[in-house]
């Protein structure tokens, strides 16, 4: 009989937990923070995946998630470290990857507070973290001249580059940012942290669906496959001792943490579908006939969709259109 009050107490405690849980969830979006290396973290659930590196120099963040989750992303970073956010690197101009730019940059502090050459950027941002991207990301975010820009000025990249590789050395490791032209869109970058051995891939690699190729914004199947190949070439798998589960980690634009083999499979899948579509085009089939021939068969259960913002047919059409416009 003495166990009864205890049982009631436990039940009451459980009830309190149940009651307080929805309130907490309403207060902040449910983000998942995963420590993937001693000084490297991944945040999932904020829109596109976010990666951040922590060290002596401060925090280097890759992508900022959606605008609606910006405060939660900042809070998640601050929970891990009190070091200032120094850099924010963008992998594309998509709202689910740059929407939190203004909030993340504002929560940070540029490395360049002493004026000089970089003083312009420091003044421009009011001392917030620098935002680095491929030049085309700034073009997309600022919008064509004479039209209202789709993002506030505080969200725009403060530092852009045009060469195939941009690099820096922070927190004791080399950081390489590779421009992948005409892939998912025209401003894609993949970011490689060499000592941590982590690559943040952006939307050229999306484990939740077929890769989104935005032909209207300069994307192409050729560049998409080249970007996947670059990921494969940059990463090293856990060989010859596969049981160790070591090797390079790849954070996709969306979906779970991956290794090189995952990217190899994804690249092969995209290449096979591209080859099928190309063969059907050579046979003279129209786009509608090619769609009807299901060139993505065998992969639709895992990556396909008949509804939503990126259907299987959208993918097939993007592959078709980018090959029609740039036939080898
Ligand atoms: Zn995305």
Quick rundown:
37% of the residues lie in helices and 21% in strands.
Residue share in helix: 25-40%
**Rg from alpha-carbon coordinates:** 22 Å
Can you count the helices? 11
Termini gap: 82 Å
| Cofactors, ions and other ligands in the entry | zinc ion
Low-pLDDT runs of 5+ residues are: 1-27, 115-125
Neighbour order of strands in the largest sheet: 1-2-3-4-5-6-7
Strand content: 15-25%
The biggest beta sheet is recorded as: 7 strands, mixed
Along the chain, the helix and strand elements come as HEEEEHEHHHEHEEEEEHEHHHH
Number of strands: 12
**On the 0-100 scale, what is the average pLDDT?**
89
What would you call the structural class?
A: alpha/beta
Q: Any idea what the shape is?
A: globular
Structure, explained:
With about 325 residues, the chain is of the alpha/beta class. The protein is about 35% helix and about 20% strand. It contains eleven helices and twelve strands. Strands 1-2-3-4-5-6-7 form a seven-stranded mixed β-sheet. A five-stranded mixed β-sheet has the order 8-9-10-11-12. Helix 7 packs antiparallel against helix 8. The protein is globular and about 60 Å long. The N terminus is likely disordered. The protein binds zinc ion (ZN). Zinc ion binds next to helix 3 and strand 12.
């Amino acid at each position: 009989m003495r166990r009864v009050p205890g049982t009631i107490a436990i039940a009451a405690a459980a009830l309190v937990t149940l009651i307080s849980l929805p309130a907490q969830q309403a207060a902040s979006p449910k983000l998942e923070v995963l420590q993937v290396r001693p000084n490297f973290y991944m945040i999932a659930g904020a829109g596109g995946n976010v990666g951040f590196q922590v060290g002596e120099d401060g925090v280097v963040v890759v992508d900022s998630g959606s605008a609606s989750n910006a405060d939660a992303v900042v809070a998640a970073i601050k929970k891990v470290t009190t070091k200032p956010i120094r850099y924010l690197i963008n992998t594309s101009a998509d709202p689910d990857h740059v929407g939190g730019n203004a909030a993340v940059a504002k929560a940070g502090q540029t490395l360049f507070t002493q004026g000089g050459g970089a003083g312009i950027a420091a003044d421009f941002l009011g001392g917030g973290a620098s935002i680095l991207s491929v030049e085309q990301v700034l073009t997309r975010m600022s919008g064509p001249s004479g039209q209202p820009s789709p993002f506030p000025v505080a969200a725009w990249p403060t530092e852009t580059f045009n060469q195939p590789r941009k690099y820096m050395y922070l927190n004791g490791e080399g950081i390489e940012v590779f421009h992948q032209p005409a892939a998912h869109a025209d401003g894609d970058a993949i970011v490689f942290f060499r000592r941590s051995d982590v690559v943040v891939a952006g939307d050229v690699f999306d484990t939740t669906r077929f890769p989104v190729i935005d032909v209207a914004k300069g994307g192409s199947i050729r560049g998409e496959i080249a970007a996947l190949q670059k990921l494969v070439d940059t990463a090293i798998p856990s060989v010859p001792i596969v049981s160790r589960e070591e090797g390079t980690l790849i954070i996709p634009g969306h979906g779970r943490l991956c290794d090189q083999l995952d990217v190899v499979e994804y690249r092969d899948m995209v290449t096979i579908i591209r080859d099928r579509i190309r063969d059907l085009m050579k046979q003279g089939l129209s786009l509608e006939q090619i769609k009807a021939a299901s060139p993505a068969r065998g992969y639709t259960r895992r990556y396909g969709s008949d509804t939503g913002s990126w259907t299987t047919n959208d993918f097939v059409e993007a592959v078709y259109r980018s090959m029609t416009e740039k036939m080898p």
